[in-house]
Design brief:
Layout: H1 5-14, H2 17-21, E1 27-30, E2 33-36, E3 48-51, E4 56-59, E5 65-67, H3 68-76, H4 80-90, H5 102-106, H6 108-128, H7 136-144, H8 149-154, E6 158-160, H9 166-171, H10 175-181, E7 184-186, E8 192-194, E9 199-205, E10 211-217, E11 227-229, E12 243-244, H11 246-256, E13 258-262, H12 265-273, E14 279-282, H13 289-295, E15 301-304, H14 310-316, H15 320-325, E16 329-332, H16 341-347, H17 349-357, E17 360-361, H18 362-372, H19 379-393, H20 399-413, H21 417-434, H22 450-460, H23 477-487, H24 492-497, H25 501-512, H26 520-546, H27 549-569, H28 574-589
Parallel strand pairs: 13-14, 13-15, 15-16
Antiparallel strand pairs: 1-2, 2-3, 3-4, 4-5, 6-9, 7-8, 9-10, 10-11, 12-14, 16-17
């Protein structure tokens, strides 16, 4: 199910991408393009480019790219249909759905959110109702933890009564809606039951502030698991993609370019009480790649404030690949043993703030942990500690930073820095074989190969290249795959959907670059020359292998002569190169 293609195309064509994007970042017109600071990552030098003519954007810093629909999806975390609906509403465009029930189904999320919101209010009133003796133990427990009435109100904390169906009776909804919302289930007799019973409830909100789930904590004296969360089977909630508190944290995160990640709901509340409003927490799961992807949209510095036990410290050691992939700098708050962030924030807020502000870089934390375990009483122990620390340092992509840690390790282990560097170089060579990293793009417009220039022309002025461009002129498989996708698609969006990530990224870059300096005759001439050179080398190799030079001599001479003429004189009209083009196409079939 979805929206009719013609309506999607109309929304895409009639949406003013400049007007849309300038609601989130300032743009300045430079030539035929618009440039500004990227709204998806923190930067000081503008690397975000928008092409108003084809309605596309590309960031040369974080590689974010797309059209108006993709921009709205990313900036507001919407699904595709919701983004189209929002743009259609803004531009007064009526839309049709591929299924007559689609319009109704698009209201499904809104209906479920409203249902969860009603449950939030129901449970909150149960907690704060002083005449309700059932909630007294919960109120006393929260008070002992330092959670007064103002905190309960601010975070909409609630209490699920010790009843099988109190919420079900209050809501009076269908079985389907009850299950879809994650608020309850159906027993074997067909009766409804509440999902949460006898628990303190922490409502979980989407980053837009919509209530979508609950985290339930049992009282200390009760039996059962400490935490029980809304099931992933709920239609509007996925714990691996949801961060508790992001709705409150995103404003300060944007201001400070930093998020503090905790493990529990009470830790986030403690952060707020200590004045650290940028705290978030995972919802009963370990930190995932999707969590990091989401955080990277709001901040490029992430402080891990996990509980000061082995589980929290182990989690801190898993983030390097995400640090590289999402251009995020991870730090670790070195909390005292036996204390979690929430407890420390309530008992000594100044100390908690100090620890957060003095968080160690991820690499420093890992090196310190390795060295702390070392035996420095013997030469052998110091050598082993240095070797283990070097394995960690070798994973860092920056040679200068690696060298700083090498000096530190050498000093701590009483080993010569040159020997450490030699060992570290070996470890780094191993690491580079294991991990492929993207080279940074320097500047907004990188130097393009002739094949990429041809693709840029195909994107911006296809009428000037369609008649002569052909797969035989491409040697780069990536470029050829893009060419095939473009000529077999009605627009860039359709082409992108058929491409792998690397190819799609290249299309994004080319789509926002100006092509005024691309001359069809020059590009065609260079492509022909390169293709003829490749074919000549191929025939020369075949002649040597077979020993039949005479069989290939005429073709080789023709190609060598053509290459020389093209390099010296080029072509003055497209027709001048069509003969060689046809010859190359014919030979590619044999």
């Amino acid at each position: 199910m979805g929206i009719v293609d013609d309506d999607i195309r109309r929304v895409r064509e009639e949406s003013d991408i400049i007007k849309l994007i300038t609601q989130h970042t300032q743009l300045k017109k430079v030539g035929r393009s618009w440039k500004g600071l990227c709204p998806f990552h923190n930067e000081k030098t503008p690397s975000f480019t928008v092409n108003q003519e084809n309605g596309r954007y590309y960031c040369f810093g974080c590689q974010a790219n797309g059209d108006s629909i993709e921009f709205l999806r990313e900036i507001d975390s919407l699904d595709f249909v919701a983004a189209v609906e929002m743009l259609a509403a803004q531009n007064g465009i009526p839309i049709r759905y591929t299924d007559k029930q689609e319009g109704k189904s698009r209201n499904r999320r809104k209906e479920l959110v409203e249902l969860v919101a009603e449950a939030v209010q129901f449970y909150h009133e149960k907690l704060i109702d002083m005449s309700n003796p059932d909630a007294r133990p919960a109120r006393e427990y929260l008070k002992q933890r330092g959670f007064g009435g103002d905190i309960a109100e601010k975070f909409s904390i609630g209490w699920a009564p010790d009843s099988w169906d109190s919420l079900c009776k209050h809501l009076s909804v269908s079985n389907k809606d009850l299950v879809a919302s994650g608020l309850g289930g159906i027993n074997k007799n067909g009766g409804q039951y509440d999902f949460f019973r006898n628990r303190i409830l922490f409502p979980i909100f989407s980053e837009q502030g919509d209530p979508i789930a609950f985290g339930g904590r049992k009282l200390p004296e009760e039996e059962g698991p400490k935490y029980k969360n809304t099931s992933d089977g709920a239609e509007i909630y996925s714990k691996s993609q949801t961060l508790y508190g992001l709705n409150w944290a995103k404003e300060e995160a944007a201001r400070t370019d930093e998020l503090v990640v905790c493990e529990g709901y009470t830790d986030v509340i403690g952060c707020h009480e200590a004045g650290v409003l940028r705290g978030v927490a995972t919802c009963g799961t370990a930190l995932t790649k999707e969590h990091v992807r989401k955080m990277s949209r709001f901040a490029k510095k992430v402080i891990l404030a996990f509980d000061a036990d082995s589980a929290g410290q182990s989690a801190a050691e898993k983030v390097y690949e995400w640090e590289s992939e999402f251009d995020v700098l991870f730090k670790v708050a070195d909390l005292p043993d036996g204390q979690d962030p929430g407890d420390l924030a309530f008992s000594d807020s100044d100390e908690f703030v100090r620890i957060v502000e003095s968080a160690k870089p991820h690499m420093q934390f890992r090196v310190d942990r390795v060295l702390e375990k070392g035996d420095f009483e013997s030469k052998e122990g110091r050598a082993r500690a240095a070797i283990e620390a070097m394995k960690v340092v070798a994973q860092h992509p920056d040679e200068l930073i690696r060298d700083q840690y090498i000096v530190q390790i050498a000093d701590r282990c009483l080993i010569g820095a040159d020997e450490i560097r030699r060992r570290a170089s070996n470890e780094n060579s191993k690491a580079e074989k294991r991990v492929m990293t993207r080279e940074p793009v320097v500047g907004t417009y990188e130097r393009l190969t002739t094949e990429y220039q041809a693709l840029r022309m195909l994107i911006h002025k296809s009428g000037e290249v369609m008649d002569w461009l052909h797969p035989v002129l491409f040697s780069d498989p990536l470029a050829e795959s893009i060419y095939v996708a473009l000529i077999n698609s009605t627009d860039l969006h359709e082409a992108n959907r058929s491409l792998e990530a690397e190819a799609s990224d290249l299309v994004g870059r080319l789509s926002v670059q100006e092509s005024e300096d691309d001359k069809p005759l020059g590009v065609f001439s260079r492509l022909l020359s390169l293709a003829a050179e490749r074919k000549a080398v191929e025939f020369e190799s075949l002649a040597r292998q077979s020993g039949e030079l005479s069989e290939y001599q005429e073709a080789i001479s023709y190609l060598r002569r053509s290459v020389m003429e093209l390099n010296e004189e080029g072509i003055h009209e497209i027709e001048e190169g069509m003969g060689l083009r046809s010859w190359l196409i014919e030979k590619s079939k044999s």
